[in-house]
Amino acid sequence: MSIPSRAALYLRVSTMRQAEVDLSIPDQRSQTASYCERQGWQVIAEYVEPGASAMDDQRPEFQRMIERASDDDRPFDVIVVHSFSRFFRDAFGLEMYIRRLAKYGVRLVSITQELGDDPSQVMMRQVIALFDEYQSRENAKHVLRAMKENARQGFYNGSRVPLGYTVADVEKRGHRTKKRLIIDPVEAETVRLIFKLYLNGEATSGPLGVKEIAKTLNTRGMRTRLGARFGVGPVHKILTNPIYIGEWRFNRRHAKTGREKPVTEIIAVEVASIIERAAFDEVQRTLVARNPRTTPPRVTTGPILLTGLAHCASCGSAMTMRSGTSKTGRVYRYYSCSAAARMGKTACKGRSIPMDKLDQLVTSHIADRLLVPDRITALLAEIVQKRAVAGGEVQDRIDQLSRQARAAEEKLRRLYALVEDGITDLDEVLKARLADIKADRDQAQSALDRIKSRSSTACIDRSKIERFGSLMRESITAGSVPFRKSYLRSLIDAVEVDDRVIRIHGSKTTLEQAIMAGDQPERRVRGFVRKWRSLGEAKRDTISPSKISTNQLGCFVSATMRCYHQQAFTNIF
């Protein structure tokens, strides 16, 4: 008497919707169990995969079944499926796993496609697998096409809803309900708070980093959409998600690989915005500026005031904090040359200065010598004088562009008159000529508008200068170190520490841009680049660390102005 084969059933549906309806899985179970009973096989295991695609092997139950079939105790002899497409919809994957199972004496049997091991039947199985794969890819193509059209019409396709939004039914089309994303008033306040903390912070805390925002939210008991605590990842995703300015982008990535798709395949869906575009753009610029690949986090958020600013005059290396303890237990902290500390005196002779002393020198001299109305006015007067010298050349260029625009306009007027009077016909040659003249006119007009906007200068009154100086003096001398540090970095480019002098470097032009931020918020300067300014614009003065009251300090604003600092300036003007 032969021993009955031991069988394992594998039951699968492609989507969770099919699994929730609960029709296909019971039907597969009934038919495969009846088949095993007719064959005299004993069903000893059942593996159910609800809502999993068969285009790959990333299926927990499938992998568990394969691992069990490969065990040394040989638990079953055959795997029974309703059709080969239930097991795999990729021709290569199907053959690979069939051969892997064959090594352990396990066969794959389809109850609706009964095929043996004859070469012709093996070929037939492979042909069936190819058709299954083709059908799956065709279905996916048509489903994606329908989803893209649904997105073009502004409807929601069923992905995870971002924090701040919820789904609402808007209309019924046949048996399908169309949905849209709408703002959730409660969650939207959380999103606005995240952007506010990143741009401005709270009270005197200064702008917060991503990690500090997560801590703040968790301390207040706020949670994500899934009820979890906030972390760096979720907060960063919120700060960079364009949906909050009304730009929901569908079909951005390949579902399998996660790679970005071409821009032409991405569908832009308009939704209600939670954050203003200007604030969102500032956040993106600041995120780029604070990127650890651009600037180490300790430079912008560390507890040391001049980290990333103080440099050794001999070798140019950064001055980093060193500490020591005296016999009495008192702790001393110094700024010391990092090159000498890492590589010894062969790299640099090294120099040190007490941390408190250098911090006080820099902040007090900036507050007392630069951020006073008379000094700021004098610096701005130099800028105005330089612009006056270049004004003649700019005006010549404006006149030239104006003549070009007028000449093109006159040519167009004459050609239009010829056509209207019936002297000539509007043939292809004339159309091409009209297009060329229009292009010349538009190009000249565009250049003219651009040069006029760049050459315009605004008048800065005394009261605005005083308010600017007052705000900045308070910001760099009071509050927490990260808060003072962020404002200080907006005012100076580098602090060069020499044996007998300290040089503070910067640029004058950004001072004007900072003061005028309230009138011209769109004008920005490049950040984290120290050598970008033109020759003759930067100046240096020196101060003695031992004689504070008898030396002059020339300190000019650098090119490291942060966007959120300009926003702060805007708030007081």
From TrEMBL:
Alphabetic keyword roster: Coiled coil, DNA integration, DNA recombination, DNA-binding
InterPro entries, per the entry: DNA_bind_recomb_sf, DNA_bind_recombinase_dom, Recombinase_CS, Resolv_N, Resolvase-like_N_sf, SSR_resolvase, Zn_ribbon_recom_dom
DNA-binding among keywords: yes
Organism field: Bradyrhizobium guangdongense
Catalytic residues (positions): 14
Domain Recombinase: 162-293
Organism lineage: Bacteria, Pseudomonadati, Pseudomonadota, Alphaproteobacteria, Hyphomicrobiales
Chain coiled-coil ranges: 391-454
Top-rank taxon, per record: Bacteria
PANTHER family: DNA RECOMBINASE-RELATED, DNA-INVERTASE FROM LAMBDOID PROPHAGE
Protein name: Recombinase family protein
SUPFAM superfamilies in the record: Resolvase-like
UniProt keyword Transferase, yes or no: no
Domain Resolvase/invertase-type recombinase catalytic: 6-158
